[in-house]
Amino acid sequence: MKTLEVEIASQTLHVLENGKKIKTYSISTAKNGPGEQWGSEQTPRGWHVIRAKIGANSPANAVFVGRRPTGEMYVPALRAQFPNRDWILTRIFWLSGLEVGKNRLGSVDTMRRYIYIHGTPDEVPMGIPGSRGCIRMRNENIIELFEAIPVGTRIFIK
């Protein structure tokens, strides 16, 4: 059985099989650090589950807004045109908290906060915090992970 583990301190995501690390990816979590509160733009901690997978068969660099493809393909010129857009590309894992009062329900609900693991532009640095709460990955890595990890997979963020 596979699970995922996100280490905020090292900015890594590990794929575990029967508790053993089998793959590690460099990621980028929230520039505001860890936290669970609504509106904080922080990465929530604790046990989560992948509630939905979005973007199957979309091309790399496909742009998503509100979990829907816009029909745009990300290129740096598009960033120049929309400099304040939070670029969600390629694939999305929508996370849901499993710990009532910590990351589920009320003002700490991960799913209602729209926290994802998603692809990001190639020029966005990995290994350092920089997102608005989500977990960013390289597009080729999110495609690989998307193929290997089913809905219902548990993820621990620490």
Q: Could you describe the largest sheet, including whether it forms a barrel?
A: 10 strands, mixed
CATH C-level category = Mainly Beta
Percent helix among the residues? 10-25%
**Distance between the terminal alpha carbons, to the nearest Å?**
20 Å
- Rg is 15 Å
How many extended strands?
10
Percent of sequence in beta strands: 35-45%
What is the architecture at the second tier of CATH? Beta Barrel
Residue-averaged pLDDT: 97
CATH topology: L,D-transpeptidase catalytic domain-like
List unreliable stretches of 5+ residues. none
Oligomeric state of the chains present here: single chain
* Topology as a string of helices (H) and strands (E): EEEEEEHEEEHE
Given helix and strand content, the structural type is mainly beta
CATH superfamily: L,D-transpeptidase catalytic domain-like
Globular, elongated, flat, extended or rod-shaped: what is the shape? globular
Structural domain count: 1
How many H/I helices?
Answer: 2
